[in-house]
C-alpha cells in the first residue's frame, strides 16, 4: 500500500482564520493531498508583542476550524 500524501502546515494559528481554511480547501481541491499535519509554532516572529494563546487552546481552534475536513 502506498503512503498517503501528507502536507505539513506550520503557523501560529492564533487564531485560526479563513486564510488557513482557504489554504487547505485549495490544496484539497487541486491536489491529491488529503492528510494534513498542522504544526503550531510557539511564537509568531511577526507578532512579538502579543502573548499567544496556549498550545491547548490553539489545538482546539484547529480541531474546530477543520472539523469538516
Describe it.
- With 69 residues, the protein is α+β, with helices and mostly antiparallel strands.
- It has one domain (6-65).
- The chain contains two helices and two strands.
- The chain has a two-stranded parallel sheet.
- Helix 1 (18-30) links the parallel strand 1 and strand 2.
- The protein is elongated.
Describe this structure in a few short sentences.
By secondary structure, the protein is an alpha+beta fold. It has helices at about 20-30, 55-65, and strands spanning about 5-10, 35-40. Helix 1 links the parallel strand 1 (about 5-10) and strand 2.
Number of domains: 1
Identify the strand order in the major beta sheet.
1-2
Biggest sheet statistics: 2 strands, parallel
The shape is elongated
Helix content: 25-40%
- Summing up helix and strand content along with how strands pair, one would put the structural category as alpha+beta
Order of helices and strands: EHEH
Mean of pLDDT: 90
Strand content: 15-25%
Count all strands and give the number: 2
The DSSP helix count reads 2
- Which regions have little confidence, pLDDT < 50, spanning 5+ residues? none
Instruction: Report the C-alpha radius of gyration, rounded.
Output: 13 Å
Distance between the termini: 23 Å
Amino acid at each position: 500500500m502506498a503512503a498517503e500524501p501528507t502536507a505539513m502546515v506550520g503557523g501560529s494559528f492564533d487564531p485560526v482564520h479563513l486564510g488557513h481554511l482557504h489554504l487547505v480547501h485549495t490544496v484539497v481541491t487541486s491536489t491529491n493531498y488529503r492528510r494534513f499535519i498542522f504544526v503550531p509554532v510557539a511564537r509568531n516572529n511577526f507578532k512579538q508583542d502579543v502573548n499567544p494563546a496556549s498550545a491547548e487552546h490553539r489545538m482546539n481552534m484547529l480541531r474546530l476550524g477543520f472539523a469538516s475536513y
